[in-house]
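Ticket #4471: structure output looks truncated?

Reporter: J.K.
Steps to reproduce: submitted the chain below (501 residues) through the standard prediction queue, then opened the result file.
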Amino acid sequence: MRKPAVVAAATVVFAAAAAAAVLARQRLREAKRWARAGAVLRDLEARCAAPAERLRQVADAMAAEMRSGLASDDPEGGDGSVVLKMLVTYVDSLPSGDEKGLFYALDLGGTNFRVLRVQLGGKEQRIIKQESKGVSIPRHLMSGGANELFDFIAAALAKFVASEGEDYHLPEGVQRQLGFTFSFPVKQTSIASGTLIKWTKGFTIDEMVGMDVVAELNKAIKRQGLDMKVTALVNDTVGTLAAAKYADNDAIAAVILGTGTNAAYIDHAHTIPKWHGPLPKSGDMVINMEWGNFRSSHLPLTEFDHALDAESLNPGEQIYEKLISGMYMGEIVRRFLLKMAQEASLFADGVPEKLEIPYILSTLHMLMMHQDTTPDLQTAGIKLKEVLGIQNTCYKTRKVVVDLCEVVARRGARLAAAGVYGILKKLGRDTVSPDEQRTVIAVDGGVYKYYTFFAQCMESTLRDLLGEEVASSVVIKQAEDGSGTGAALLAASYSQCLQDD
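Returned output as attached by the reporter:
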């Protein structure tokens, strides 16, 4: 009777030992998996590192490329030697605050546009009242004819003017002045003229290339029977700078950090070798840097960045933009995650199928996971499930994902700070000023506005690069709706200039 009991007991012992061995092997596998994941993360972190010494080299390279671009008479960089186009905007008079009257703006930046009217009351009243309306462009007009597109836009302007209340006053017989924000590549020839270089953002109206966009809009406005003309043609970054200067006279530069990125700043006209016209009265000139195209051997690029660039619609171009803007940061995180899934089995169920789809992970998803404040990173888990179809993730996995987002965001923010530092170096504002001049940089765009970590990291990095004494006189200000309001303000500013002349 005892023998079966002994056998049963031995079986239980063996089963327990076998289970313990299986558990031990599982734990060892898990330990190795997390060790691999940790090693891959540390390697990526090291290759994305942007220490202060490297950032200073990036800033020096930015300042050097700014000087090269200002000297080059080939703004399109046809031979590839011009990294920064440094486009002369013909904006030499920014709003002062004295502007009075009713002015309009048209902000065309993509598949939608906005029309605005702004009532200005001079130094005392500033912006008395402002209204705007958004309009969607029908898809067929994006590939039709030039007249059809501009007639549609002019009709919306006419309807907007017709809806005006009595509280918007324009003296009888006075022509309406319009600021035109046109966020497509343009070769500007004066403050109120510029030829289209190429369409982007889904527009394919080939006959428009090489045509003066202001002339076409003015003709369409006339066809509507509207007594209005374009006084200023600007891009969104220049509009943001104009709005910033109106709000704070110490504003000297504007930076857009959104889907794309760009910067504009005020330079001394006599320091621009390619400027061949008479020196403006103000002595200044706003330069549109097109800084998204900046590149340098000092940028911390990984094989993922090189692959993203090679597979993009514009390989070899916009390298800086591909490191710091909203269009690309989420995609870089996706590529990093794919490597971790393949090489370190980051996800327990293997490589998620959706993780192999380019651009499925946006920078908005990235910031939502990164800025997750729940104790168990629940938001990150929800996003991984919603976007990538990963059903169950443990806390460790979610933490690695959040850490990866931080690596990419920190690199982007620190490189953006280096770009601003480069502008300050070019202007000689990177040292202590004897007259204690204040320097204001206006920043707009969704990445800066909504990605709190990015904005804070960028600002703290710039402070570190400048040093406490210089940093105390440099202010980064968030710009609000600069591109539209700024265009109206420039229309006012140039209308005033014409009256003065």
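Triage note (M.O.): checked the attachment and the full token line is present. The mean pLDDT is 89.
Status: closed, working as intended.
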